[in-house]
Fold each of these.
Amino acid sequence: MQLHTLDIGIIVGYFVLVVTVGLWVSRRGSKDLDSYFLGGKTMPWYMLGVSDASGMFDISGTMWLVYVLFIYGLKSIWLPWVWPTFNQIFLMMFMSAWLRRSNVLTGAQWMQTRFGNDKGGTYAHLSVVVFALVNVIGLLAYAFKGIGKFAVVMLPWHFTGATTGVFSDENIYAMILLGLTSIYAIKGGMVSVVITEVAQFTILTLSAFCIGIIALVKVSPAMIANNIPAGWMNPFFGWKLGLNWDGILNTANSAIRMDGNDFFTIIFGLMFFKGVLASLAGPAPNYDMQRILATRNPREASLMNGMVNVVLMFPRYLMIAGITVLALAFCMPVLRSQGNPDFEKILPLVLSGQVPTGVLGFLLAGLAAAFMSNFAATLNSAPAYVVNDIYKRFYNPKASGKKLVALSRVVSIIFLVVGVGCGLLTTSITSVMMWLVGALSSGFVAANVLKWYWWRFNGYGYFWGMISGIGGALLFWVAERVVGHSFNALYTFPFLLLISLVGCLAGTYLSPAENEEVLKKFYKTVNPWGWWGPIRDKVVKEDPSFVPNRNAGHDMANVAVGILWQLCLVTLPIYIVLKQWSWSGAILVVLVATSVYMKFNWYDRLEKAS
């Protein structure tokens, strides 16, 4: 693609500005580990919320969401539940407050509050470190693959001219852009990441509205109707998906078969069941957890995750819908002419032909912001687990803050190199994403649900549950490469859940319960609901003023309404861009009703800041 000089100037100017600002504020995040990883717990909840939303507005995920909306139509609104996106509702309703009360630095350090410092607690601590580091490497590879695919279509320069191999233009672009983002993310830690992400999210939101408006102006409903199969605009489905692209774009049917999503009811059931368990397990040890722990108090932790839903969903899906509609209206001849089109490249394909000069440079800067936000947040979360949870705890407890920050920067560079290496071995965004959310997270679920809700669960149970789950996910990854054929990783969920659950129960019942004082302190501090009867009775006996948490029913009712509210935020911008006004009006009514419900049943009942 040939970019106009104005567009190139906007993009270059954006990169210079972001890196300069990130380096300028980096001094605030370099004093000690608390300031480097959590910003000293002084940043406002709304800034952390925007930062978290910006980190989730990643370019790889955006390219995938454009792909699934294009192929699956409105039925694609359910597919992000594979992450699951509704975990943000569980977090805002109760889980963020529970996590923040622990007042720790990382998810691994949290293990000490739950399981203590004995041998079992140490094993639990180390197992979550292993999970976090494997997850970070996977996310870095995912970011690498997405930005490379995007840049090679959008940017005009060619380095080797190769389309495949280690030194392909795609991979070289990815390495350059990862390197630029790493400069400020490694130098300044959380403060640099959050402040630059707030600025980046502003650009992203403006970009989203630009794309949405362009689609509204350029595309009529009739132009879309001629290029979609029956049922494309209906979000509901039967036993099977019920979409047939024959005669319109035959290769789309092949993509559905390759994804393994034809039996959509089974996929939906697996996504929902896994998603609920994953949400009850709390956030994975990544940048999302890091921002919860960086808030000032439990109330602000809940508000922060509420902010994520409000600021993320509407603009992101406005952008996704706009790009999809432009592709349906103007890119079908190109897609039909390609024997095996890469649908993950629809986003750059649309931008390369349907956006005017000047606006294109601004949009490319916004999408670069999406990549930089997600990548910086992921990279910043990695060294906390090595430096704080291994080096400081086991090797050098008295290390100075400056030394720990310096070591964190070295660890970040190491993980950057490993992540790039794994990215070079992958071929698609979807394959990496589905392994992360379909296989690896399946091995995470059982142990991390039980740790919150069952008093008898101990450190040995957590360790064996996590190790068996992670091991099963890695074996699946190896098996795919040995066989040379990939399939939907969601189908591994029941098996990995069972394997992990057996490890949890065996490890728990073959070893003694945790120290009673550790359990009482955890229960009194975090105050979760669940099967805590024996511990709850002893805490209340010792402290009659203590009020146990009996809000399970209320919290889950809020979650159900919150998921419906979130779906409205997702579908409303899509139907607006499609100019389906009857659907838009009905969704808006439900959105207002659910918002009023949550005002009285969630916001007004948040615990007051101490």
Amino acid sequence: MLATLMLAAALHTAPAADKPDWRTPFELGNGNTTATYAECIAYYKRLDAAYPEVTMREVGPTDSGEPLHEVVISLDGDADPASVRAKNRRVVFIQNGIHPGEPEGIDASMMLVRDYLQQKKLREQLQNVTLVVVPVYNVDGMLNRNATTRVNQNGPEQYGFRGNGRHYDLNRDYIKQESRNARSFAELFQRWRPEVFVETHTSNGADYQYTMTLIATQKDKLHPVLSQYLQQRLLPALYGGMEKRKWPMTPYVDFEGQTPESGLIGFLESPRYSTGYAALFNTIGFMPETHMLKAFKPRVESTYALLDEVIHFVHRDADALAAARAEADRQLLAQTLFSLTWQLDKSAADEVQFRGYEGRTRPSEVSGQPRLYYDRKAPFTRPVKHYNTYRPAATVQKPAAYLIPQAWETVIERLRRNGVQLQRLTQDATIEVDAQYIEEFQTTPRPFEGHYVHSRVQLRTVRQSQHLRRGDYVARLDQPAVRYLVETLEPQATDSFFTWGFFDSILQGKEHFSDYVFEDLAAEVLRRQPALRQELEEKKKADAKFAQDGAAQLEWVYRRSEYSEPGYRRYPVLRLTGAENLVVE
């Protein structure tokens, strides 16, 4: 009897053996540790097994050899994008670990997903929202764990590396998509087409009081309908909500002077970056950037708070967000003029109340020269100019269609992956097109992300008859991917395929001439074409250096004569401006 009572008492006081411990590796640590890749994936697999609301699946390869995962959280367990859309739900897409040395989002999202499953008040936010989480995007970098490469950062104790398995910075790969990671992401993004996209980061740079800074899609690059919605509804709600949570935010701290008081400059995220890519498809994007010098624990906590605020807002404002997105999509199809490059307008600025530290100088112990430091004993709050107005620097009228020769398979592959609807010619055709010739361009002297990048492109457009072959591709611009098409296929665009060197073979001539032979032919060309002779004389008058360079003049005539190879510097993608009827599949 006594033994029975003792056993009963022991069972009553001992913790339930089958009660699961849902604390994350971060929560089990000392506040300065982040989950390993294996721990992160295993945690989500546990959630997937325990909760029918969670669907975890592999969605494609990465350069590491490990798969890219997505975790979908829907209250009814529905993880099919088309079905979710049919149920009139908004989609919030969170991506973590693009730079695994900046791992706050990895740990914050693990806690966030768990809490949204286990806490009733949070679950209510998912009544009209489906949450999609990429636990780790740069799997390769997360597996490359170390404690030294983020030399300026205050924790965690160990972390991943910025570069992926091919040493790419994946936040420069959203257009060129050379990594398997980026290709898998593009297919996943196109399936979901989220209303809101968030990619978590940690900042570098100045010292200041904030733990959280925020990059939002640049307002002048976002479609005007969504830009107004972002500026008037979404951003005020996020800034206000974070202030109430005691996590005040500021726009991302980037500036040209020595300290932030010189004026903050809005981040111009071209489509090589995640939020710039998302904007091509009328998705509002955010890159939260926690401050590297704050301890890791508050960085994780502030990231959690911001992600929670985003979901709460989308839940509350679901109908208005859907209406803004639908109107932007409708207007985009009717849009005819598109911007290709942008320039900061320094004459336009607003002000932010910035909470910083005084910047001072003292002698460097290394060089003896004056060095900057921020005096944390001298905090301040004062108005600082915020330059965040960008004006179009180059624009283009969209054509009716682009004609893409089938030889350029690397381009065709990317267009398809990014949701472009393509047709193929079923028979040869000869039609009038606008062909563009690359007249001038500049190229970086050193490689950037594996490429010698072009810029300052000048074009010459020629109306000409062009023979198309059966199997060549037609990309009409009356489709949702219209802005993606324009910003990748127009050579002057900041992140066009030409910019990234996809068409470099056209920049090298394959045939040429011997000067002493061509001299007589060139003279004959000018006799037969007085207008060309007049153009040459005008160029000599306008360009003294050219006027003294006989070889340059001979080259100039050659390039405008029938003897010049037709494909040299002719951009292969042709513009169809009329309503020609092409026989397509």
Amino acid sequence: MKLNNKELENKALWSEKGYKTLSYDRNKMIANTHINPMWVHFGAGNIFRIFPAKLCQRLLESGLSDRGIIVGEGFDYEIISKAYAPFDNLTMMVTLKADGTIDKEVVGSVAEAYPFDYSYADEWKRFEEVFENPSLQMVSFTITEKGYALKNPAGEYFPSYVEDFKDGPGKGRMLFSRLTELLFKRYKKNAAPLALCSMDNCSHNGEKVENAVKTIASEWLKNGFVDEGFISYLNTKVSYPWSMIDKITPRPDKSVAQMLASDGFEDTDVIVTNRNTYTAAFVNAEECEYLVIEDDFPNGRPCLEKAGVYFTDRDTVNKVEKMKVCTCLNPLHTALAVYGCLLGYDLISSEMKDKELLALITRIGYVEGLPVVVNPGIIDPKKFIDEVVKLRLPNPFMPDTPQRIATDTSQKLSIRFGETIKAYIRDGRNLDDLKAIPLVYAGWMRYVLGVDDCLNEFTPSPDPLLEYAKGELSSVKIGATVSVDDIKGLLSNESIFGVDLIKVSLADRVVKAFNELLAGKGAVRATLKKYLD
């Protein structure tokens, strides 16, 4: 059993092995999409293949749509050449359930998939055709939070964007420069409306899209590459819906590959690209999923509400995002990531059997976060945390690692914990009630040292501010005692912690916990017990 169009013709064999295959005419879908494209997606990674692509498939299956998705990859072109093209743009979707069962389904809603780069001339021409077609309704993105950044942490434009501003359309080095060029072509062709909808797991994602596109366009206007009419078009006929997405999607796992191989499925190799993307013919992920989108689509949209998407207003999207990111899931995940690495764990699900770690995230979610949670109304925060703690994180078939979740932690602490601190201050609550959150801050600093609780060295996960943090902690050694003054530069960094820990009088508490974590071998475990018993 191999994943391609020809092999799928033997439906009986796939069904016998427990695989769900396509129930619609895929060739007809591809033809319809080519003539009247409706949906373009940028970011060909795993989360897209197992979530937005599946949503589109549900509409195809139910006859609510006759068109699929055109995919563009603007960063790692090997994803297209190694994980899409060899498998006829099909994906084997593996859903890992908490009860120990798995669902296996072929997803075929990707009609076309190309590198998004000028060097692929025919493919670039195709993107031009698609964007000039008034039938196009939406462009979505899963390019990670870093993909939207125009500036470095110092507030300076990245050199590639500086060059793109100067050179104008036709020479874009960055994805959003090339996207803005396509929008300019659409404007010149027919000025048809369009929605640019980020589906990335980051705060105010629609705002990030809007800022990127309008900044580039404004710079091009200054340099004479575009006219005022294009700026007006971006302001009046292009929308930038906000969204909240939630589905834990680990890298393709070898144990899942073995389960598939036991069925006779042959395409189980895990592919690692030169840009260190982990992909495969299959994608594995949890069963639980949420997608909430601001309903602002000036050229219409697919009826994704029929596939389980919540459509609502921007304020509600923002509240759902804050509920999840600031209280009900992301803070718990980050705490498990930091302390999981320090305690030698390699699975999030295994950490959920750890008494102290379970106590840590329970306190973060229910005791410290829930009293100030933003309630969006459409999803109940208490039930959401219950699902996370009792069903999602303990799922033994979810091969997610603390090392993966620990990536870019310096970019996550401010929103995942700093917002709760701000809410306490705003509401006049006693900051002395916060015990677990300062412990996570201290734990992250201990993690930055790259020495676990058994005093073995480890390599922290990639993080744009890792070297900065190491520099601020360069004088800190295991067994040493640190004062607030010794590391005041780091403690006062609002971009990392969300607040100046010194100004809000939390620095002493964080440093006290940090010193306890530094005491020696076994100090991490001992400190957790002390604070959480």
